[in-house]
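Work Package 4 report. The design task specified in the project plan requires that, given a folded chain encoded as structure tokens, an amino acid be chosen for each position. We show below one input record used in the internal validation round.
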């Protein structure tokens, strides 16, 4: 998964949106953003209405072009620190600690270092979920792209429901290894959903052609497949080894 600089979304106001405030229209069409976040992005000039600066109260006309660019989150480069921890329990999956009073949990304004996160990075070198590694669920309809007919796209008004669960396994400075679990089976689902988040698949010449020069193909691999046998109802599970070019991509992490 390629780490992009920002998320870009382009919309065209349909007839039924005529007369709606810009912030309300975007909040309705983009449920992944709260209305307050939408208003903040508009005021910070990250939303353009027909290519011009917009206001939250601007009223839409049918056919108006609305472009939203969400800036990337601030990068926090947490460093491991040898801070003593009172460990109550630890195994390969969990750690339970008795946090001392006064130890700040997360880095933030005024506390960029000397936090519990810094201590855990030193103590648990293999612990996932430390240092900004995210996981989540993408629930966004997918339909045919209105202009590029060979592509699919997140369709806010039309399209079929699609759900992708994702988890970051390993992160590098320019790319990450992500596990995706499909809860639906739409065309190009993983590629479209990750592109929608602003993190397209490496080597994807259709959805991220400018970033597809490093690898000759999409760095997607169907690792595990599970289903119930249609006759016996017995659960079947299969795993496929990683191909050599995928292993080479991982070596760059």
């Amino acid at each position: 998964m390629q780490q992009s600089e920002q998320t870009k979304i382009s919309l065209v106001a349909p007839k039924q949106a005529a007369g709606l405030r810009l912030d309300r229209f975007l909040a309705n069409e983009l449920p992944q953003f709260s209305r307050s976040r939408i208003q903040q992005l508009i005021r910070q000039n990250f939303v353009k209405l027909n290519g011009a600066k917009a206001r939250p109260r601007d009223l839409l006309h049918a056919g108006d072009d609305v472009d939203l660019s969400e800036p990337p989150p601030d990068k926090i480069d947490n460093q491991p620190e040898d801070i003593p921890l009172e460990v109550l329990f630890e195994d390969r999956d969990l750690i339970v600690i008795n946090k001392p009073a006064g130890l700040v949990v997360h880095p933030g304004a005024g506390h960029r270092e000397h936090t519990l996160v810094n201590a855990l990075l030193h103590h648990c070198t293999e612990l996932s979920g430390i240092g900004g590694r995210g996981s989540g669920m993408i629930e966004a309809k997918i339909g045919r792209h209105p202009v590029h007919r060979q592509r699919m796209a997140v369709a806010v008004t039309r399209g079929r429901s699609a759900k992708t669960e994702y988890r970051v396994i390993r992160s590098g400075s320019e790319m990450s290894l992500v596990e995706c679990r499909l809860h639906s089976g739409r065309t190009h689902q993983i590629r479209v959903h990750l592109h929608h988040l602003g993190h397209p698949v490496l080597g994807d010449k259709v959805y991220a052609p400018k970033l597809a020069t490093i690898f000759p193909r999409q760095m997607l691999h169907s690792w595990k497949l599970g289903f119930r046998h249609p006759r016996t109802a017995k659960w079947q599970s299969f795993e496929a080894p990683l191909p050599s070019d995928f292993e080479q991509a991982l070596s760059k992490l």
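The chain has a mean pLDDT of 85. Validation will be extended to a larger panel in the next phase.
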